[in-house]
TrEMBL record:
The chain crosses the membrane at residues 149-169. Its main location: mitochondrion. It comes from Linnemannia schmuckeri. Keywords: Membrane, Mitochondrion, Mitochondrion inner membrane, Repeat, Transmembrane, Transmembrane helix, Transport. It is found in: Mitochondrion inner membrane. This is Mitochondrial oxaloacetate carrier protein.
């Protein structure tokens, strides 16, 4: 995702106590179930945890980006060879010709993007949900899928709007290859994130900095709206039907299963976002134009390029973020005592 989606381990119980205990963003003060969750705490914990996770999953994001850009607006000729044939081959190819630096390309920008994106999204999810419940005069301790979808979607759209320039730079940094024979898509060379932002602003203006923001907002809004309720449904099935305890194993399996279906929904949006961000000039006028041109030139299957790499990023990224966030939360709780 991409981007990557936030860890879906938000409150799902039917009581105030279980809801707060299951939510690592909220502190352990279960005596005040109606108290509005802290957006600042969620932002810090979510951003720090996501940075830890992206250190591990960034290579999958690099691979996904290149697979999605390969053969852009061109149908593959019968018998022709592609540079990247699948996720495993792409990993070995990049490692061989570009080394660890190639596999971790754009990592610095990815850190900044994760802080802005997942920090905002995680920090706003519970406050937005609490606000919706207050407006509807409904019980915030009871699970409500409609409210969850709305809160996830709104938080995703807002976070995408804020983090879009960093997503733009990250995409361009990850698509660039120092090995000429490995290049796919439009190539943009920048020394680092600040250099990229400065160059884009100088050559394309403020509008260039926010190129593709509409595609990014659709991508992240759809992903956030789908992931949180979907994860919760899978987790509850694991507990009540599978007999698993509400612990790390349950959370991990739920992340992997829900992540698969999330990729099905999100991958077309991800393709459009990647191409909108990486384009040179005005190849695509809008997300709709990008969608139509991609399908016309490459077929519907092009919307699922890089699907395996996308999934290999989303599942582990969610699990690692959850693990790291639990540790960050414990540190925060020590300071509150």
């Amino acid at each position: 995702m991409a981007s990557s989606p936030p860890p879906a381990f938000f409150p799902s119980g039917t009581t105030a106590t279980s809801s707060l205990v299951n939510n690592p963003i909220v502190t352990a003060k279960v005596s005040s179930p109606t108290k509005k969750p802290s957006a600042a705490l969620g932002f810090l914990a979510g951003g720090i945890a996501a940075c830890g996770a992206v250190t591990i999953t960034n290579p999958a994001e690099v691979i996904k980006t290149r697979l999605q850009l390969q053969g852009e607006l061109m149908r593959q000729a019968p018998g022709s060879k592609r540079i990247y044939t699948n996720s495993g081959q792409a990993f070995l190819h990049i490692a061989k010709y570009e080394g660890i630096r190639g596999l971790q390309r754009g990592l610095g920008c990815a850190y900044m993007y994760q802080i802005m994106m997942n920090g905002t999204r995680l920090g706003l999810y519970d406050p937005i949900k609490h606000t919706i419940h207050a407006a509807l005069k409904t019980d915030p301790s009871r699970n409500n899928n409609a409210v969850n979808i709305a809160a996830g979607g709104i938080g995703g759209i807002l976070s995408a709007a804020l983090a879009s320039p960093l997503f733009l730079v990250k995409t361009r940094l990850q698509s660039y290859s120092s090995h000429e024979a490995s290049r796919v898509g439009q190539q943009h060379y920048y020394r680092h994130t600040v250099d990229a932002l400065r160059h884009i602003y100088k050559t394309e203006g403020f509008r260039g900095i926010y190129r593709g923001v509409d595609a990014s907002m659709m991508r992240t809004g759809a992903g956030s709206a789908v992931q949180l309720p979907l994860y919760d449904v899978v987790k509850q099935k694991m507990i009540h039907i599978g007999g698993l305890e509400n612990g790390a194993l349950c959370h991990g399996l739920s992340s992997l299963i829900s992540g698969f279906f999330l990729c099905i929904v999100m991958n077309p949006f991800d393709i459009i976002s990647t191409r909108m961000f990486n384009q040179g000039g005005s190849l695509y006028k809008s997300p709709a134009d990008c969608l139509v041109k991609t399908i016309k030139a490459e077929g519907v299957s092009a919307l699922y390029k890089g699907f395996t790499a996308h999934y290999l990023r989303i599942g582990p990224h969610t699990i690692f973020t959850f693990v790291f966030m639990e540790q960050v939360k414990k540190v925060f709780e020590r300071f509150e005592k």
